[in-house]
Predict the 3D structure of the following.
Amino acid sequence: MKIKFLGTAASEGVPALFCQCAICKNARERRGREIRTRCQALVDGELLLDFGPDTYMHILRDGIDITDVAYCLVTHAHSDHLYVDDIETRAAGFAILSPSTRPLTVMGGRGVKQAADRYGDGRITEEGNARFLLLHAFEPVSFDGFRVTPVPAVHSTEEPFVYIIERGGKTLFYAHDTDILPDETLDMICASGARFDLVSMDCNEGVKHIDYHGHMNVERDLVFMSKLRERGLADADTVFVANHFSHNGRLPYADAVKIGEEHGFLIAYDGMEIEF
Ligand SMILES: [Zn+2]
Ligand SMILES: [Zn+2]
Ligand SMILES: [Zn+2]
């Protein structure tokens, strides 16, 4: 399995549009990996994770043919993860699609359904070439060799999910946006028999003291890693990646890398690819 991190920031991006803080100034000066666009990833070049407002620039930057992507998992309906207006440009009048192009199936929980289901019957475009599939917690769905299990996240939206994604004997746990999952949720994951090869975990708050339940910081990431290891959901071979950084987390990429090296996790950056 291969994951490509297309965007690795929280909702404002780094630098944030209007922000003059030290982190944003640093990103404007150093550029490179200090620049972060809104969170999105692509698995095996086929399964899109979230459809935020930077999707358009991601596909241009990385030469992705988005019409090859037939499935998109959306974690929740916050604006950095879902920008429905761009999905709607698959409709006639915006786009001319070849008859062989498969519909885009966008999947998520109830909050995503409310935002995405423009025509109220599972269609996002009038023609149905972009359509919505409602997922339910711990009810796996299978398509194109993938098996996806939605897991309830701890985040302030209607029914947010994080996802367990399996294919070809490998398992990815895409955990954005969420705080540390409650023990009962972790126990339910255990009961499903999962073991993660790669975990992409929320590091929104960086080195800042966390005062909002819905994201994690470095300190909480370490607790999360321990909880997964204690339960056998992760082991010494599991790759941990910290992702979804906010400028408010006070953690530039260069500093984050040092912390990650010390504690055994990688720091996501825009364009990073990991094959596992
Ligand atoms: Zn987010
Ligand atoms: Zn800033
Ligand atoms: Zn969010």
In short: The longest helix spans residues 218-230. Residues 76, 78, 155, 177 surround zinc ion (ligand 3) (CB under 6 Å). The first strand starts at residue 2 and ends at 7.
